[in-house]
Amino acid sequence: MTIELKYLAWVCVLTALIWVPYIVNSVAVRGLNDALGYMPHLKPLAPWATRMRAAHYNAVENLVVFATLVLVAHLAGASGEVTAFAAMAYFWARVVHLIGYTFAFPWVRTISFLAGFLAQMAIAGQILLSATTR
Known about the structure:
Structural class: mainly alpha
């Protein structure tokens, strides 16, 4: 397994687990019946849980792009040092984004999001460079 695919798996695991803490908060705040139901007027989640939920949505949206780029790079034979580093950087940028967003650390969310975006663009660049040199 390539490093890029390994980090894709780790990003998937991270994204798959993010919902757990904010759902636990939902049950704690609303009670099990309301948390699992469709009540029109629910008690609000804790601010950190609301932010974690938003971070989760953002992670899912960006997973689509990251996964596609990693898989295309793998299938096109465009994997190398740049894509390996970018995949690792993307994973850690998502970890930092989650923490920064959840705990509202100033600037951390934006900078880590930008770092993840740049990692995606590095992989995309390697794919396009590979396509033009063949």
